[in-house]
Amino acid sequence: MTARLAPSAALAVALTASAALLPVLAVLGELRPTWVALTAYTALAAAVGRHSHPAAAPLIGLAGWLFHNGFVEHRHGTLALTDPAAEAAHLLLLTAAALAFALRAAARRGPRRDRAVPRRHGRVTVDPKPDRVPL
After folding, report:
1. Three-state DSSP state, 84
2. What pTM was computed for the model?
3. Tens-place pLDDT, residues 20-61
4. Dihedral angle at the C-alpha atoms of 33, 91, 54, 17, nearest 10 degrees?
């Protein structure tokens, strides 16, 4: 079972990956507001969300939106809200992609059963690993 990234770690990964995506888009000639750049950032948000805790989805979406708005839509790292409705839709799209993949991955992993939990009334569960013998 793999561990999910905490929100702070997911934010760091999303910021780093978003910055790494910029040169790729530049080589492709897509540092302009097109569907290709938005799709690339949406796929990136989904990929980071797949390995993250669902609570990290708003941070992942925000990280992708910051780079898309600052370097793809408005050059040189300038953030601007020329069309607030469109910007809100971009932020919602990136956050929804991260959340959908985080929830999907969490559902596939299932509930955590890796620890023995003491029961009430003095009874405890037995360690499910039979290869451990108490000394």
Report:
1. helix
2. 0.77
3. 999 999 999 988 889 999 999 999 999 999 999 999 999 999
4. 30
How far is 110 from 133, CA to CA, in rounded Å? 28
Q: Pick from 36, 43, 90, 84: which is nearest to 62 by CA?
A: 90
Q: Give me the pLDDT at residue 11, please.
A: 96
* Backbone phi and psi for residue 12, each to the nearest 5 degrees, phi listed first: -65, -45
Average pLDDT over residues 79-101: 94
Distance CA 32, CA 36 (A): 9
Token digits for 10?
């997911």
What mean pLDDT is reported for the chain? 86
Residue 31 and residue 22 in contact, taking contact as beta carbons nearer than 8 Å: yes
